[in-house]
From TrEMBL, chain A:
Native source organism of the sequence: Terribacillus halophilus
SUPFAM superfamilies: Phoshotransferase/anion transport protein
Name by which UniProt lists this protein: PTS system, galactitol-specific IIA component
Recorded superkingdom: Bacteria
One Pfam family from the record: PTS_EIIA_2
PANTHER family according to UniProt: PHOSPHOTRANSFERASE SYSTEM MANNITOL_FRUCTOSE-SPECIFIC IIA DOMAIN CONTAINING PROTEIN, PTS SYSTEM FRUCTOSE-LIKE EIIA COMPONENT-RELATED
Lineage of the organism: Bacteria, Bacillati, Bacillota, Bacilli, Bacillales
Automatic annotation (TrEMBL), chain B:
Descriptive protein name: PTS system, galactitol-specific IIB component
Residue ranges of domain PTS EIIB type-2 in the record: 1-92
Top-level taxon of the source organism: Bacteria
Source species taxonomy: Bacteria, Bacillati, Bacillota, Bacilli, Bacillales
InterPro entries: PTS_EIIB-like_sf, PTS_EIIB_2, PTS_EIIB_2/3
GO MF annotation, one: protein-N(PI)-phosphohistidine-sugar phosphotransferase activity
Gene Ontology BP annotations: phosphoenolpyruvate-dependent sugar phosphotransferase system
Keywords from the named record: Transferase
Entry keyword annotation includes Kinase: no
SUPFAM superfamilies: PTS system IIB component-like (SSF52794)
Source organism of the structure: Terribacillus halophilus
Key word Ribosomal protein present: no
Length: 155, 92
């Protein structure tokens, strides 16, 4: 499977109005379940896993969260791109208390672990690219942001 | 041959990504080593036969082998320093 197949326009969520990070996961989890991407256990699994093994990353130009969980909670592989109206706090990977404010969440739903490795490599490569970050920040609509990311994934 | 162990919560996502990056770097530098990704729950059993531990999650306890920062290999930030440390540990 190519990573670009994991992107879906309906899974780009902008201007989400969540007060807390957990609310954001509940909202996105419900949308994912409604569309058949995940099982009903997904949201709880993400929240619990995040408490144990946080996935916030303060990168050079942007702070991201890459929540993910075990394939058993996922029906169809996907990457959901989520931006809240304002930045939400999240714990940095490899720590249990270092809080950062997240610009974008890339929620990863993976069926095949081999795909996950390629996907993470691709994401990390993109996030270290200044053009990619600028594009993320300058596309404020679902369709344009989706097309932008899709094009970049295909490069 | 020395063994490098990489551990994350599940042993499938981040640790494998980091392990694959580390393998590539060691290859490019002509350093031979076994690089393995495991889940954090199996770490205790693997650590005994490993020489370097690359950590992605915060350790609950101290291990008596050298520990490197795995997030540097994931994001590329600070990777040069961790690479230098890793190579010198594997060559010593």
């Amino acid at each position: 499977m190519s990573e670009v197949d994991l992107l879906h326009e309906e899974l780009v969520f902008l201007d989400v109005d969540a007060r807390k990070t957990e609310d954001l996961f509940l909202f996105v989890g419900e949308e994912l379940e409604k569309r058949g991407y995940v099982k009903s256990t997904f949201t709880r699994a993400i929240i619990e896993r995040e408490a144990l093994y946080p996935t916030g990353l303060a990168l050079e130009r942007i702070n991201i969260g890459i929540p993910h969980t075990d394939p058993m909670h996922v029906n169809t592989g996907f990457v959901a791109v989520v931006k809240n109206k304002y930045k939400l706090p999240f714990i940095h990977m490899g720590t249990n208390n270092q809080q950062i404010l997240i610009d974008y969440f890339f929620i990863l739903g993976i069926k095949d672990p081999a795909d996950q490795v390629k996907l993470l490599q691709l994401l990390m490569e993109k996030f270290s690219n200044v053009e990619f970050i600028q594009g993320l920040q300058s596309n404020h609509e679902q369709h344009t942001l989706f097309s932008f990311i899709k094009n970049k994934f295909e490069e | 041959m020395k063994t490098v162990i990489v551990a994350c919560g599940s042993g499938v996502a981040t640790s494998q990504t980091v392990a694959s990056k580390v393998k590539k770097i060691l290859n490019e530098n002509g350093v031979k080593a076994n690089v393995e990704a495991v889940d954090i729950k199996s770490l205790d059993q693997y650590i005994k036969t490993s020489h370097v531990y690359i950590a992605i999650t915060k350790a609950k306890k101290e291990y008596d082998i050298p520990t490197l920062n795995g997030i540097a290999f994931l994001t590329g930030m600070g990777m040069k320093e961790e690479t230098e440390k890793l190579i010198s540990l594997l060559k010593s």
